[in-house]
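ok trying again, last paste got cut off:
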Amino acid sequence: MEKTAIVNIIPKSGSNMKGNVTFTEKNGKVFMKAAITGLLAGNHAIHIHAIGDCSAEDGKSAGGHWNPDNKNHGKWLEEPFHIGDIGNIVADKNGKGTIVRTTDLWCIDCDDDEKNIIGKAIIIHAGPDDFSSQPSGAAGPRVGCGEILLK
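nice, full thing came through this time. structure:
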């Protein structure tokens, strides 16, 4: 059975960015695609954060990175890393960027709290993830936020 979750990214911290993220689960794998506009050209960190709350103007209501295994922050699929460590989205000169991921580390609306992405948030940062600074990659202000919702 296929399941879908959607995210509407809204601007935070005075940015003009917006976008969407779609998660589709099929046969035990989750495929994610994020499409963002309104960014400055270059790399911008994208993470899953623990709380699906984007009410704060600076996005901090979404809490820290989703990290149910209590691992150090790092690079996607390179141990150690949080399962919320997606990586960097690269924006072109027009401010548009996309990123895709496929994994069995996540699930959509399942009974496993350590894998279920529903109720978490996607955060886009002003700068790149350095993949080493703890606990979050030194990526700067949160410029976009969206709650992960079951479609």
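cool. The chain has a mean pLDDT of 96. Residues 3-150 form a domain with the Immunoglobulin-like fold (CATH 2.60.40.200).
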